[in-house]
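Researcher: Please translate sequence to structure tokens.
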Amino acid sequence: MVTTFYPPFHFGGDAIFIRRLSEALARRGHEVTVVHDADAWRILAGRPDPEAGPEPRGLTRIQLDSGSKWKGQLSCLLTQQTGRPVMHGARIRDALSHAAPDVIFFHNVSLVGGPGVLGFGDAIKLYMAHEHWLVCPTHVLWRHGRERCDGPECLRCVLHHRRPPQLWRSTGLLEREARHVDVFYSPSRFSADMHRRFGFSRELEVIPYFLPDLEAEAERPEPVRDPPSDAPYFLFVGRLEKIKGLQDVIPRFAGGEGAELWVVGTGDYEAELRALATGHPRVRFLGLRSPEQLRSLYKDALAVIVPSVCYETFGIILLEAFREETPVIARRLGPFTEIVQTSGGGLLFENEAELGEAIERLGGDATLREKLGRAGHLALRERWTESVVLEQYFDLITRVAERKNPSLHRALVRERQPATGGEAT
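Model: Translation complete:
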């Protein structure tokens, strides 16, 4: 795995998924090496390093670290400007040479090496587009910090985001280095289509995010509800940024009566959201919560509200709600539409009136909540659990290996054949 961010040096769901994928492969006996860039996290986080715990058996984490603040800043700036791992390139090559992987997964490589890292290593190469970085210098197709992008105005946009323009984007570097990658893929059909719409020349396949198998999750103890309360509530989980759309939800919880809105997360837009909620006693900001606490919050919520106003690439929050048989209320935008329509696990809205109607319906109809929650849970089991999605990965890897690495292809075919005659494969 080659990625800019990896827990605990991370900010969002893409890094959590990379760890989930890495641990799932390690549990199945594969050796996994993760290369990530601590310099990039430090520049953006501006706080002391988090404590990294031990990795599970079979998983090795290699942390790229320039050793000082100014060297880290220089390393990231050079990569951002040249599209190449100028200062960490030798270490990445050494890591790949030592690991001698059969498969290299590239994830968010924006600051760990840019397009130039795609040529490193000799293996089957897969690239997962967790964001829209391949077609957008700001990663999120959020133009000028105020609207969804419907056409490139990249120079003005990056300056508005206070980022230096990336000179390599006008040199054809991405197109040249992309030829080293066997398969590009995205977690949703919507995101794959957006890459094509914005000019990425390679077709993207679709392999979704997943949650651990529910049977393994069921063995974990049930946490106590946090915070303890008898009040019915709707739940928001995510980074507190303008693009997440919470500012459209808070006004729906004005007044002193009715279900509450509980908000889990922190972010750059938090002060503005707290100011918007002033005088709204039914809005609670809970800050960050552990995964165990989050499961309890999901389980007891009337519904989970997912109001992002930007183009997401997936919607892991929806799956986390489905795991607890809790319905969702999601904006009819991007991948949320395909997830909700495929699962039948929630309601969609396009405007404030429809959002209010969805909140009112689910707040007052326990039968509907139960029906939608069960549908989402069933769809999760059928489509978005570890065992189901890993089969899609190995289908993809086996297909590429057939033309690129015949010995690996034979080994994969043998490993994946069902046991016959009572003998193990």
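Researcher: Any highlights?
Model: The first strand starts at residue 32 and ends at 37.
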